[in-house]
Design goal:
The complex is a heterodimer of chains A (about 400) and B (about 160). With about 400 residues, chain A is α/β, with parallel strands linked by helices. Chain A folds into two domains: about 150 residues, Aspartate Aminotransferase, domain 1 (Alpha-Beta Complex); about 240 residues, Aspartate Aminotransferase, domain 2. A seven-stranded mixed sheet of chain A has the order 2-8-7-6-5-3-4, sandwiched between helices. A three-stranded antiparallel sheet of chain A has the order 9-12-11, covered by helices on one side. In chain A, strands 1-10 form a two-stranded parallel ribbon. In chain B, the strands form two sheets. In chain B, strands 2-3-1-4 form a four-stranded antiparallel sheet. Chain B has a two-stranded antiparallel sheet with strand order 5-6. In chain B, helix 2 packs across helix 3. The mean pLDDT of chain B is about 95. Classes of the chains: A alpha/beta (about 400), B alpha+beta (about 160). The interface between A and B is medium-sized, with 29 and 19 residues.
Chain lengths: ~400, ~160
Amino acid sequence: MKHVQQQYISKTASQLKPSGIRKFFDLASQMDNVISLGVGEPDFVTPWNVCEAGYASLESGYTAYTANAGLLELREEISSYLLEQFSLQYSAESQIILTVGASQAIDLAFRAVIDPGDEVIIVEPGFVAYAPAVTLAGGTPVSLETKAEDEFKITRESLEKVITKRTKAILLCFPSNPTGATMSESELKSVTDVIEKHDLLVLSDEIYAELTYDETHYSIARINGMKERTILISGFSKAFAMTGWRLGYVTGPEEIIAAMLKIHQYTMMCAPTIAQHGALEALKSGREDLEKMKKSYRQRRNFLVKSFNNIGLSCHMPGGAFYAFPSIQATGMTSDEFAEKLLEEERVAVVPGHVFGAGGEGYVRCSYATSIDSLQEAVKRIERFVSRHSSQA
Amino acid sequence: MNEKEIEILEILEENARIPMDVLADMVELSVEEVEKIIKRLEEQNIILNYSSVINWDKTAGVDGVAAMIDVKVTPKRDVGFDEIAERIYRFPEVKAVYLMSGAFDLSVQIEGKTMKEVAFFVSNKLSTLDSVLSTTTHFLLKKYKHDGVIFEPEQKDKRIVVSP
């Protein structure tokens, strides 16, 4: 029967590789006493005001669809938020769509711009969903590998090397999941003329923008000549600890947004209404909560990165997101071996770097969106693990 | 007060038992610098005490009652409310005294072993003070949250263990 079912599955779907994260999820969920540094979401629950706004919207009977693009009031709020926080001007009426998480925005963007044969540059190590999303839209993902010595930023040379005649777009995600890398205004400016020269479209996933610790986040769309060719993707999940609400948004040039809206109206109709009411409250009153969470992430980052370097796992200081990406090369293990043994022997879950694509091997992703007490215990266990295995070598 | 000092205070207010080296890493200072700052904050009476929040309801054999008393008083020339407040807070059974705006002046929190003990304190010690005009005693029935700490916290992390 299984064989018979298989014949119905599309080539695209059967060729899609399952995410390497899955294996660790299965392993870790069967064990007790696991400290997980493998979680890609905030450890805070959504600010209470936001939850209250969700309840209130239900009580007031807001249980129907909204406009395809989302509540106009929310789009207006996002428009002024983008202006205030990131000096970006987008029209609430014609340039913003509320989506089901930033994930849907990524899918929409690729579907709206990719023709068969188009190449899209994906910065790696990077979020696991980008390359499959390109493939599903009929395009070809091309990896741009970033390196620890460049603090996982892209450079002119690394970018120019992967551009071909078929390159249509480049996807950027800074601050980065999994490396925590950020790119400053001047670092971005060092690559934007290459982008212009080759007439590339930019998909900028700035979901971690609010979690930038040492500098202020600078959007690539602010750079002269970039706004017209940038699709900006963000959402509420990371900044306001609202992952389960599934609410993101996308903004960009009017015509591209209109094309995305066409797909969105047929495939999704609109983003969840309750989540939109919650998000409205988050933008109106969530700033203080956001700043508190951000401060706490920064403190934990400082502790974790220092500790990794102390125990011999060399780790750059990530400028944003909530991930440390230490090198485990000193142990002589592959990232898979390291992660598996660490889980078995010390009950600490991390994600092996290779699942994030090119350049990820030799590293593991450790989320510091976990209490400082758990982080202390995790560091103790990892230290024990590393010293045990390095003495054997 | 600089940013680092405020950050140290915030972390200590949440967890006074945090190891010094961890605290130092969190705020990106050396252990010596942090110790120096904390010592100064203690000397300036900015950090007053390191205490624990305890749920005595869960301890077998230790019983007690607590009450909040609204007290109306006559303030005195020159010293205002400070003198009578001091007269009140010097009683060891008084756990907290606040000057309030609104219908009464001082909010006095008191703890005793029995209701009788609290009643005795109010009628014999508090009400008899010269400046005290009236008292209204409210007995505390249950503590849900105290100093930002929830008494029956939900410990469970509701996130899935590994996610992208």
